[in-house]
Amino acid sequence: MEARIVNKGQLSELLDKLAKDYDLIAPIQEETVTLFRKISGAKDAFLEYTNSDISPKGCFLPQNEKTLSYMYTGDTLEIDKPEGAKKTVLFGARPCDIKAILTLDPVFEGEKFGDEYYSSKRESTVIIGLSCSKVLSTCFCYAFEGGPCDGTGSDLLFTEIGDKYYVEVNTEKGKALADAYSQIFSSQGADQLAKDKEELAKKLAGEFVRKVDLTGVKELLDKNFELAYWSGDDQKKCIGCGTCTYVCPTCHCFDIFDYTTGDFNGDRLRCWDSCMYPEYTLCAGGHNPRPTRKERVRNRFMHKLKYHLDRYNMVGCVGCGRCVKKCPVNIDITKIINDLKEVAQNA
Amino acid sequence: MLKRLLEYVGFEPGRFQARWISGSEGAKFASTIKDMTEKIKSLGPNKKMRDDIL
Amino acid sequence: MMDVIQQLREQAKKLLEEKKVDLVIGFGQGTELARTTPVFIDSPEGVSKLTWGPFCANNLAKYLTDYKNAPGNIAVVVKGCDSRSINRLLDDNQISRDKVVIIGVPCSGQLEWQKVAAEIKPGASLKETADNGDSFSVKTDAGDYKFDKKDYLLHRCLVCENPNPVVSDLTIGKEQPVKNYEDRFAEVQALEQMSTEEKNAYWDKQFSRCLRCYACRNVCSVCTCQICVFDQMLPMWVSKRTNLSENTAFHLTRAFHVAGRCVDCGECDRVCPMDIPLRKLNQKIHKDLGDLFESPTPGTKPGLASPLGEFSPGDPEEFM
């Protein structure tokens, strides 16, 4: 694998250039919240974050997306589709969030049901990852074969070492970008930093404090749709908001509806939806197959720990810890995993 | 209360007006509406909460 | 705090053993050192889960309406601010007084868990907490810490109106001194002073960040509608689309729907994942209710009429 070096002092130059040549999406800080937005240059970027409050999944699956607009002009109906995605660089995504994009890929790029809106953005985007320099008490990416310095899924992975970034070139797309800015990406002395990066990865791997053990959990859920466990405290304390699903980097449910702006003109929109909302499964005629919080809480965790595995052979959680941190009542997926493991052992 | 809240979040004072007029107060109704129309016209088009197209 | 925890457990055990209640809703240790989580205890053996300390931010009165139609009685642990919710729920006929046993715990403030967690060694476990007046000491197996209240308290606790429960069946712990805050509405006043353009820019920036996860609505103890206006599909008053216009409509409607009933517990503000200062909206309404109708914070006394729900000939008549 190839590697390069970028001096920290040159990062602003790189970001300014990228912002000029591409749509550049990078973490920014708005008041106390870190989120990903399109930026116009290095001055807007905020890279001293541990884990953004909102993941960059919106680059590929925006919370609001126009899929088409329609105009009815008396006797003809015109339909306009938005143009394909622009050349984009996603800079500064953490390894867990990049892994989350890999878990979204089979959903939107499956052979049977490809989604052109998603794949057009996916194809035209170069993902530049940024290794973590700190492990939070809510982090548990190691449990899903991820790691704070794991480059899986990224085109380029930046790792901060002293006053330099060690840059791993993971794909052809990444190589092309590094070559295009060869005055910034130097290839000299990169080998020496490889060892430093290994050491950093090893050091950070030892800093995880959350113990998560998935042994037997999938098998238990395979055999048992109904478990007494789901009637326990978690569904009682859940307040039914959508925070966990909206901050989750792998949640991908959406709702499609028309937004009429004139008599017969309007847009067809695709917007995030959440399985925690009561009307999410509400059918015409009034029947709701997930009538109470018990079924809705169960569904969320079944999706993460079983359904996604069944369909795509990938766990639907990457261990970013956002839901753990943001849940108003401290419902914690790591506790649920460990509890289920115990249920499996005692069964 | 609502008027105060709306002005607190950035609506211009006078953009929202409420008046209590009985069905028998035709003249008051006419003059109130006249005043309201003038006031609103002088404020110009509302900019707050416009439906932006995606 | 150990004696409070001990008494809490004893009282809860007694209530369950004597079958005075079927369920005790209280605080239990959460999955982070500086967090608690609501616990639902239905047997005397379960009371060891109960805890108390400076990490009990949640308003548990929220859950009472879930058990409105369930058989049996319920005991609930409340702080001063939460107890205002109970008065409000009683006045709204949302719960019946004889179904609820209120365990009040005087509170000397709640700490913001993220701020505390940032200081404490990850993975440490909590041994004990103690109140030193101006600060809390937190003893853990990885060392002892001290947190100054003025820096670490939740925003809402800095201007606490009722440190002691305003309604309770049994009170556990020492009564706390009540302070009078003259600058309770300082932040609202600062915003009021701004020009229309500045106010507009300030709130547009806040509302545009909203994800519409509805945590603020769902955590609210006085949001008791069975079907919320924002969940209605026909007609769809606000759509799932999140743009400034829809978000503003949501926030103004939410704040106004609880006007006169909001007890200022500050939970909406605490749970917002995007840190939108929602309490500044609700507090504006509180301030105006006080200015216009001399109305105290809802829930501070039982039987307080809702200022927007009754008419008195002395009411100001700005719209005549």
Explain what this protein looks like in three dimensions.
The complex is a heterotrimer of chains A (347), B (54) and C (320). Chain A is of the alpha/beta class. In chain A, 33% of the residues lie in helices and 21% in strands. Chain A has helices at residues 11-21, 95-108, 116-123, 172-180, 190-205, 217-223, 233-237, 243-247, 293-312, 322-326, 333-346, and strands spanning 2-7, 23-30, 33-39, 64-72, 77-80, 88-93, 125-130, 156-161, 164-169, 254-260, 266-272. In chain A, a hairpin with a 4-residue loop joins strand 4 (64-72) and strand 5. The termini of chain A are far apart. Chain B contains 2 helices and no strands. The radius of gyration of chain B is 14 Å and the shape is globular. In chain C, a hairpin with a 3-residue loop joins strand 5 (126-131) and strand 6. Chain C is built from 10 helices and 8 strands. In chain C, strands 2-1-3-4-8 form a 5-stranded mixed sheet. A 3-stranded antiparallel sheet of chain C has the order 5-6-7. Helix content of chain C is 31%, strand content 13%. Chain A binds chain C through residues 30-33, 35, 53-54, 63-64, 135-138, 207, 209-210, 233, 236-237, 239-243, 245-247, 255, 257, 259, 269, 271-274, 277-279, 282, 324-326, 328-332, 334-335, and chain C through 30-32, 35-40, 58, 62-63, 66, 114, 117, 122-123, 205, 209, 211-215, 217-219, 231, 233, 239-243, 267, 270-271, 273-275.
Features of the shown structure:
heterotrimer, A: 347 residues, alpha/beta, seven-stranded mixed β-sheet, 11 helices, 11 strands, B: 54 residues, mainly alpha, 2 helices, 0% strand, globular
**Rg of chain B, Cα atoms, Å:** 14 Å
Query: What are the segments of chain C in which pLDDT stays under 50 over at least 5 consecutive residues?
Result: none
Tell me, what's the shape of chain B?
A: globular
| SSE order of chain B, one letter for each helix or strand | HH
* Main pleated-sheet profile of chain C: 5 strands, mixed
Range of helix content of chain C = 25-40%
For the largest beta-sheet of chain B, the strand count, sense and barrel status come to: none
How many helices of chain B in DSSP terms? Answer: 2
Q: Which two chains share the most extensive interface? A: A-C, 49 and 40 residues
Task: Count the beta strands of chain B.
Answer: 0
